[in-house]
Design brief:
Blueprint: E1 7-8, E2 15-16, E3 20-27, H1 33-46, H2 51-71, E4 79-86, E5 90-97, H3 117-124, E6 127-133, E7 136-144
Antiparallel strand pairs: 1-2, 3-4, 4-5, 5-7, 6-7
């Protein structure tokens, strides 16, 4: 018997397992961003998200990783641990960097090309949590599987 987390796939022929847990570790370098986007996109697709939901997740994760690369300490052994968990109701991505977050403290100008990362992550995901401690920074991004107000089409 299928679990409560199973649902029919779009082609109506096979069940899609909804509980998924995977993780990977990547170097904290710009070259790893594509690998992370593909990693979370594949899991989000397997979890039943639409293309729009997959795009939102991938972009938010990309921004979190880019922030870890730019704002984290510059050490040769710096990495980012990416964990994705999909349940019946939510998709949770946890990014953990082994360098402490360095807050710049500088306010960005409105026409600046950077400084909008946290806003973007919050706009794309339902919940964003950042915690710093024990020499690492952890970002948790949550997207619910139910339609949110943000995903509704305007008429």
């Amino acid at each position: 018997m299928a679990s409560a987390c199973a649902r029919r796939s779009p082609d109506k022929t096979a069940n899609v397992r909804q509980k998924i847990r995977r993780s990977t570790r990547v170097p904290a370098t710009p070259g790893a961003l594509s690998r992370v986007r593909h990693f979370v996109s594949a899991i989000a697709r397997e979890s039943g998200f639409t293309d729009a939901g997959i795009y939102d997740i991938a972009m938010a994760v990309n921004e979190a990783c880019a922030n870890a690369i730019i704002h984290g300490t510059k050490r040769r052994d710096q990495y980012i641990e990416v964990s994705a968990f999909s349940s019946c109701k939510s998709f949770i991505v946890t990014l953990t960097g082994n360098g402490p977050f360095k807050k710049t403290g500088a306010r960005r100008k409105l026409d600046s090309e950077d400084g909008r990362g946290l806003w973007l992550m919050s706009a794309l995901m339902d919940h964003v949590t950042i915690s710093v401690g024990d020499g690492c920074t952890r970002v948790v991004l949550i997207k619910h599987k139910t339609r949110s107000r943000r995903s509704r089409k305007l008429r």
